[in-house]
Amino acid sequence: MPFLRLLFIAGIIWLLYRLIKKLTLKRRTGSRKSLESTPMVRCVYCNVYTVRQDSYFRENNYYCSIEHYEKYIQKDSK
Fold first, then answer.
1. CATH for 39-78?
2. Cβ–Cβ contacts within 10 Å for residue 61, how many?
3. SS3 (DSSP) at 62
4. What is the DSSP letter of 61?
5. Where are the domains of the chain?
6. Element (H, E) at 14
7. Whole-number Cα distances in Å, 71 to 15, 53, 54
8. Other Cβ atoms within 10 Å of 64 Cβ, number
9. Average pLDDT, 10 consecutive residues per value, the chain (78 residues)
10. Cβ-based neighbours of 56, under 8 Å, separated by 6 or more
11. Which of 48, 40, 54, 61 is nearest to 75 (CA)?
């Protein structure tokens, strides 16, 4: 009888372990997917890639900041 009780408790612990592992795996997979689907664009001035949502689109080009847009325009006009 004590052996069956020990086996039952071990089974419950194993089930809880599997449930926790499954829940934490779903969280990690979801966050990775959102990072992979973020479109990146290259700044024309410094060639650094930034998230398209955070970049500036002017005159058919992407820039990582307003300062780089202004520097690019100044460089182009000289």
1. 3.30.60
2. 16
3. strand
4. E
5. 1-37, 39-78
6. helix 2-36
7. 61, 21, 18
8. 21
9. 90 94 72 68 94 90 93 81
10. 62, 63, 64, 65, 66, 69
11. 61
